[in-house]
Write a structure and sequence with these properties.
By secondary structure, this protein is of the alpha/beta class. It is built from nine helices and ten strands. The protein folds into two domains: 214 residues, Spore Coat Polysaccharide Biosynthesis Protein SpsA, Chain A (Alpha-Beta Complex); 64 residues. Strand 1, helix 1 and strand 2 form a beta-alpha-beta unit.
């Protein structure tokens, strides 16, 4: 039986993370688990308390908030498993989830990353993810298959290759991780798992989904409140993803599309919603690319603490 290292990242959500840890106690059907929790610079350090309350788990404290990619990279560096299972701290697992994902990986060594089917936790039976469509590199748009639909098994036949894994739950083989490396930390928020999938593919592996395996995600069905932080990184990283992964001619076409279609659309929406403060944020996200290389570690925006 192959060893699985579960890695999750906490940032100012100790109660949510503890719900996950209790959920993981129910996966005893899989015999060889290692659980690693990275606290990503939370204002109050929960690690000393957790080490007392959850013996047998590994807790790591980062004094800085290194983002989704950085926190997971810290955890993976400590992991000893044959497979590394990265899950959001706001997820809850099902008892046979890990075994089913491992079985898929074992049956096909060509799989680099695999994700399970994802349901919204607060909306029983509602799908969040059963795979992604391929990316249109001219627009940097793709679709999450099945999202917001009731799960009637209509996508269960999609077992196999998919456009991208879902960042809420991704199992990667140690070999694929060692060849492709960790996630690019300069994304900080959004698009980092898509970029990672591209690098895993370039390393010679496939990205798969297994709809027979299920995890629950507590992310709200509603879009939620937009913030300047989210607007900045969603726009900056959309450009960054194409800049890092598309040929120069394709990137040029994307830039024309972004400036002629996306920017006017966003500005009109900001004005219509009286979100005038987002207008300079959008242009700040664009300007970042004139001053920074694609691998720059300069976030360009104040990071949350």
């Amino acid at each position: 039986m192959k060893k699985v290292s579960i890695v999750t990242v906490n940032f100012n959500q100790p109660e949510v993370t503890e719900d996950l840890l209790r959920s993981l106690a129910g996966v005893n059907a899989y015999p060889d688990l290692e659980i690693i929790v990275v606290d990503n610079g939370s204002r109050v350090n929960p690690v000393p308390d957790w080490e007392k309350r959850y013996p047998g788990m590994t807790f790591i404290r980062s004094e800085l908030n290194t983002g989704f990619a950085g926190g997971n990279n810290i955890g993976m560096a400590r992991a000893t498993g044959d497979y590394l299972f990265l899950i959001n701290n706001d997820t809850e697992v099902t008892a046979d989830l890990i075994g089913k994902l491992v079985s898929s990986m074992e049956a096909n060594p060509g799989i680099g990353i695999i994700s399970p089917k994802i349901h919204y936790f607060d909306q029983p039976g509602m799908l969040q993810y059963t795979g992604y469509t391929p990316m249109d590199y001219y627009t940097c748009r793709n679709a999450c298959i099945g999202q917001f639909e009731q799960d009637r098994g209509q996508y269960d036949a999609l077992t196999g290759p998919t456009g991208y894994a879902h960042g809420a739950a991704m199992m990667i083989s140690r070999d694929a991780w060692q060849k492709a490396g960790g996630m690019a930390e300069n994304y900080f928020l959004y698009y980092e798992e898509l970029d990672w999938c591209e690098r895993v593919r370039k390393a010679g592996y496939e990205i798969h989904v297994n709809p027979d395996a299920l995890i629950y995600h507590k992310e709200s069905v509603s879009v939620g409140k937009r913030t300047a932080l989210k607007e900045f990184f969603m726009n900056r990283n959309r450009i960054l993803f194409i800049r890092r992964n598309a040929p120069g001619r394709t990137f040029f076409v994307f830039c024309c599309y972004f400036m002629l279609a996306v920017v006017p659309r966003n500005v009109i929406r900001y004005i219509k919603n009286r979100e005038y403060h987002f207008i300079p944020v959008l242009f700040r996200a664009i300007a970042w690319h004139f001053r920074n290389k694609p691998d720059s570690e300069n976030p360009g925006f104040p990071l949350p603490r």
